[in-house]
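pasting for the record
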Amino acid sequence: MKTTIPDALKADIPVNTWGKLFAATPVIMTVVATMLAGLASSEMTRAQYDRSLAAQQQSKAGDQWSFFQAKKLRSALQRNTLDMVESTAEVHPLDGAALAALLAETPANEVLASAAGNQALGALQSGELPKLGATPAIDPKVKTALDALHASRPDSDVLTLLVSVPEKTLASSLQQAQDYALSFDAATAPLSQTIDSLEKQLAKTKSLLPVPDASVTALSRDFTAARLRYNYLRYDTDARLNQAVANIYELQVRKSNVSAERHHNRSQRFFFGMLAAQMGVIIATFAMAAKQRNLLWSLAAGAGVIAIAFAVYVYLYV
């Protein structure tokens, strides 16, 4: 928007300080209106960016919830199968010495003799998962928001708690949760591969026996029960780690939506300020063409002051 004052009107304007200020009013109001239009456009762009970011975060949260559900189902399947085995046959704790003796002449003997084999055998016998480091410490504000999310409190309550949580804090909490989940995968992946290798070799050895052997059958059943127990615990723990990551993503989604709504509201208010400044331009232009200018010029100046004051308020407090 460009404002040009006709020469005829300039000649009719007093040359004193008030006259110069009077002549400059439309120009000043035009500058203010242009500035407010730019701020309104900038805030709307940021609102759109935050909405897009929230959509991406929701997609990532959905992926984590899918992993959570899949692993929960696998855990339940392993547990149900274990219950069926234990209810239909006699199951004993896995005998490591008997397993080593049976596989002594097979390639699995080297696996059992390795550190990974000993660790896998220990996990099968104890039914315990590898020990990890301490659970990452969560920022108290993030933990409060997560507790509210777990308790299914209204979104308004969760959003109130999230207002005071910096985005960097949420991002840091998410990274810690992801790193912890990856450390669990790194600790259990070699054990799972070793257990699968032992199971295949045990099945192969059993199939090569000329006649069925009750002790080998019992050992194979005990191994299967131990493997099922280990797997259902592993999948259950993995699911809970995915759930923790998904919950923090959900907080990020709400945080981004709150930010988008704030920028959208600021854009609307800057737009209203721009309209007030444009009104000042129009009134000031009319004032220069009118015989009684004081009232119109006062209205134009008042509109400009209101626009500037409103813009400052929105910028600082909204």
